[in-house]
Specification:
The structure is a homotrimer. The first copy, chain A, is an alpha/beta fold. Helix content of chain A is about 15%, strand content about 25%. Chain A contains six helices and 39 strands. Chain A has an eleven-stranded mixed β-sheet, with helices on one face. In chain A, strands 8-11-14-17-20-25-28-31-34-37 form a ten-stranded parallel β-sheet, with no helix packed on it. The longest helix of chain A has 16 residues, at about 340-355. The radius of gyration of chain A is 27 Å and the shape is flat. At the B-C interface, strand 20, strand 21, helix 4, strand 22 and helix 5 of B face strand 4, helix 3, helix 5 and helix 6 of C.
Chain lengths: ~375, ~375, ~375
């Protein structure tokens, strides 16, 4: 990959300054950059690091005095973090896999592959599966019976798409991602202690040991366009209807999406997030790392939940939540502040008790 | 799959009402149901949705006026959620994999397969492994050296059973489940800061950097009958004795069961639960999503822990626990309530201090 | 495996006592030990259990009266837990896989394998990958394009090493471990609600729904010597520079290490730990199970964080942290103690308010 500064700026819709014919073959942090790299000096604090490297060209913050920084050329963008998307796409070396269908892949004769589909070594594509044009089914990955993948799907090594799962275009599955595991759904012959404890908020009633029987998952998973699922993440099948993930929603590594969940569009679910069964998530929701959501909860549009938040009840649209138990973030931050002073409060109250019972001995 | 209402009710031990010869080929939620589906209207709140669909027959709640709901036939059960188990079993389309042993599977010549065992494409079965009759070893799954699986095991794609693991009958492993990873067990030459901080509850003493050496896992994993392990879950080998999972215990996705754990019968471990090493869990225990249990903790029979609970000390039988730090659920709910009022409390105490120091100026 | 007590003690640098010619073929817990086992009675509380088994020899605690315990021979070590490392190594039966290169493995012609490398059935090694001498590339595992593994790597079944990842010597990957998934990195065209809520600690400002575009991961992962990565753990690629894991750091199961993280040497990351992007972890840090670390946080050397701790701000070297929000462990334990008495505190303040407003009616 080799581009001039002018080509890059043009592709990114950014402004090229200086000797725009300078050619670069990679992008690097300022201190690591060679003369052939575009340095990423997107904030003033990176300015000094430029002198530690040998960059001739850099992506700089709006208003940077790039010539004073010793650069021959610069790319300026009003929101440099945003142009990182296009820039990183241009320079992504990819996985380096061979194109075409590897002879070791096991593809059922009834599976349908679109044009220019690549299938890596030791991948399995089951009966009736349909793979959209331009897709890459990576090494050792799996596409189940009657599953449907849209165009330009990209399955990394070991990703697994279960039977009857339907996925839109431009889907990305990271290594070992699983879509379409069975839901975790069991029932006891009689009302269980859990059912009673939920009703009473803590009392499971008379304890009677029971065994669980399995409720099979008859639904599948339906995923929109431009969705990504991270390494070791799991999206379970629905019980009767499908589990749903909306367009452009991105799921990080080690995320659990339980059966029957319906997730809207443009959401971010970060690492180790867990959604129990039948959670409904609106659009443009962000759940930070290790957030947990109890079953049957509704989360409104544009909700943001900070790292580790446990959502045990419905959350209205637009709320920014934090903590366990979850509260509005500003309230929670205040509670945290008070908790740090709680020892002093106990001492004050002890003093007050003494003072009030013996009002003449206040100290 | 096609059944009459009479056949279904009979199989479920439920009551068929109306035109019991009506035939259905699937089950659906009320609003989605066609004339060929059995609608699931198990609670009065689903009644209205029936009119949005075209169901002729439904599974209804006890006492429902099914004729008034426009149905030709109905199945009534005292606990509809329970009959969902049998019903979903009858209608489960399964994974659609071919029977028999796929030629691409790699099966060691010393492995023993019972009658009617199916082995999917690109599965591996190692030396000395024994697979019970009627088992399905799914595509790309793995059974290690000398591992034993009982009858009717079902390994989904990519499930991995390590060497010498012994599992009972009717085991289910979801995609990419791992049984028999090595325990996470390391030791420093001298007493470590962690060992000292645990003793002192917070003081790690003089800090001396040390490196860890590995303690190998010589034990295996022993799993009872009717156990299920979810996608991306891991049950680690024991150090000397085996890690044990009791009969009928169900493990959801992304669960960690550490080395030497002994889990009783009829437990539910929900998504992202983590058991550190040597945890002992009784029978009929339910750990909700993202519960964590510190190492060497004992959890009594019939304990229930709500979502996100961190159990850092032993829990007596029958307790319903919540929170971090874990308390009895009702106590914790009370603490939560007080926390929401803590700002007011600080203000009250400030007022009191003023009032007490200047008793004539109470406002 | 068969060793005399003398051989074992010699190998461990421990002291052999009694009939040091006694031969053992395994190690067991005291109650389970046969005459051919070395019993592990490393603490006085195991003494009684010895009589339930038939051990002739045991690893005992320093100062144990081994003859009174009915033993013919004993091994004494000042820190028995430490010698468990060497002992478990001696007796580890391993995975029992065949040596050599299995014909079903798919190895690219440009991959370079050192001497005595074994490759299991259905493993994939991509173009340009280099595998150090003595390595074992397990069944169904994966080594990506231009990835480098040092000497004596050991990849369990289904482990996946992505393109361009570079790993030192003696690396261990548990089943389904993933190194080199893409980072979870997205950006919106305009400043997002999350960016604003972080700045304001809770206010996301005017809500404007935006879609995310992907920032590709151009960096790789660089891992030192003697590192282990657990089952279902994920170490993501860096965005520009590499994600780094230092020498001798051990990562348990289901751990997420986000893009750009730099982890020092001799750390332990326990099960279900999550590091968001660009976290910097010093040396000799221990993060217990389910610890979470927010992005861009710095954790100093020798920090210890207890189970479930959420680190949302920088942690100075040597701190022992606990809880959510994280505090110093001793402070947090104190807060927990006060929380358990908070109901009483509210009642006291209510009493005080009554008493102060009607000072003559204190009860």
């Amino acid at each position: 990959m080799s581009y001039t500064i002018e080509q890059i700026a043009h592709a990114l819709g950014a402004t090229a300054l200086g000797d725009v014919a300078v050619t670069v073959t990679g992008v690097r942090e300022p201190a690591d950059a060679t003369a052939d790299d575009l340095a990423l000096a997107m904030k003033p604090e990176y300015a000094q690091k430029l002198s530690q490297g040998s960059a001739r060209a850099a992506l700089v913050w709006d208003g940077a005095d790039w010539q004073a920084l010793g650069l021959k050329a610069a790319i300026v963008a009003p929101r440099p973090r945003y142009v990182m998307s296009g820039l990183s796409t241009m320079f992504d070396p990819g996985q380096g896999w061979d194109e075409g269908i590897h002879p070791s892949a096991v593809i059922h004769e009834t599976a349908q592959l679109g044009e220019n589909v690549s299938v890596g070594p030791l991948a399995v594509i089951c009966a009736g599966a349909r793979i959209g044009a331009g897709s890459v089914i990576g090494p050792q990955s799996f596409v189940g019976t009657d599953a449907v993948l849209g165009e330009q799907a990209f399955l990394r090594e070991g990703a697994r798409i279960g039977a009857r799962v339907v996925i839109g275009d431009r889907f990305i599955a990271q290594p070992n991602a699983v879509v379409g595991a069975d839901g975790f759904s069991y029932v006891t012959p009689d009302v269980s202690g859990v059912e009673r404890a939920r009703q009473s908020l803590g009392d499971q009633g008379d304890i009677a040991s029971q065994s669980y029987v399995r409720i099979h998952s008859l639904g599948a998973v339906r995923i929109g366009d431009d969705v990504e699922v991270g390494a070791h993440s799991a999206v379970d099948r629905g019980t009767i209807r499908d589990t749903v993930v909306g367009d452009r929603t991105k799921i990080d590594n080690l995320v659990q999406v339980g059966h029957n969940c319906v997730i809207g569009t443009d959401c971010l679910l970060c690492g180790l997030v867990g959604l129990a069964g039948s959670v409904k998530v609106g659009n443009n929701v962000v759940l930070a790392g290790q957030v947990g959501v109890a079953d049957n909860i509704f989360i409104g549009d544009n909700v943001i939940a900070g790292g580790g938040t446990k959502l045990l009840s419905n959350v209205p649209a637009g709320r920014v939540m934090l903590g366990y138990p979850a509260m509005k973030m500003d309230t929670q931050m205040e509670v945290y502040k008070y908790l740090r002073r709680i020892k002093r409060l106990f001492a004050d109250v002890a003093d007050l008790k003494k003072a009030v019972s013996k009002p003449d001995q206040v100290d």
